[in-house]
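Researcher: Here's a chain I'd like modeled. Treat it as a single chain, no partners, no ligands.
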Amino acid sequence: MTRNETFVYAIARLKAMENRFLDRSIFQRMIESEDAQTTLKVLGETSYAKWFSSSEADISFDKVLDLELQGFYDEVEKFVPDSSLILLFRLPYDYHNVKVVLKSFISQRLGGEKRWDLLTPLGSISTDDLILAIETEDFGLLPYGLNALLPQCLSFWEQSRDMLEIERILDAHLFNSLVALSKKLPYDGIDHYVKNKIDAENIRAALRLKRANIDANKISGFFHEGGTYTADLLIRLIDEPLEGWQRILSFGDAVSALESLQEVHREAEMLVQLERVLDDFLTKILDKCRYDAFSPEQILRHIHLKETEIKNLRIILVGKTSGVSGNVIRGLLRYVP
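Model: Modeled as a single isolated chain. Structure tokens:
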């Protein structure tokens, strides 16, 4: 079977799996439910029902969503011919787990507690292996350059006690790993997606930094390489009024997300809205390949849509639990196919 034929089979399987995606009517019913418990009952009428039959009597919605996404990844890894395509989405979970284990290790040294409850099974590295590596300080078998990076992080902590800087170092390493992985893949659309993903993250970071009044000398370190925009250009956004951002970013694809922003008067509201339009921007990038039966980018598109579905469910369930109005929840939702 040729590579193209292999992708045709995988894409056909994914197309069939798209029938399991929740449609707008389900999301609408969940939003209009009286309370969080009723919202969960609606979710229990869908393909997610199998997770509610768990032996746990009062299983949390977070656990349900994690089980669904874990089951999804386990399934697609059985037939997607190039696992590196899936790794592009699982790497961020690995780095999340690295942060959790590293913080727990440091916390324990200082007399605090471990927080293994914050670990996710969605990464590509076994959480047990990660815990063992950090607790024994034997990093040799860790992949993605973490075997060299983690000793540096621990050494830096001993010298500075600056956990924020360690998180920044790990984030930079994550995006460098995503770029390196995309460069190894012989598919132009993958590189294009990763570049735009970095642009989206850098634009988010620019608005957060603008609100936080971070020291100007440290700002450039929060922007990731590999995107369309240089750190020097992104730094210009910090002192620029929000209405001027489109002009500065006009030569990149991500400017289309800014064009869809509605006028708001508070930066906090702008950040929430920006998160949504940037996620939808990435959906549109991947949607361009939806009718190409030979395109490996279809794999990314399907995984992205599943991740977006989980994100939307989390927004609804957290919103209902917190008593947020239906209209506000609707305004937070990402693209629903």
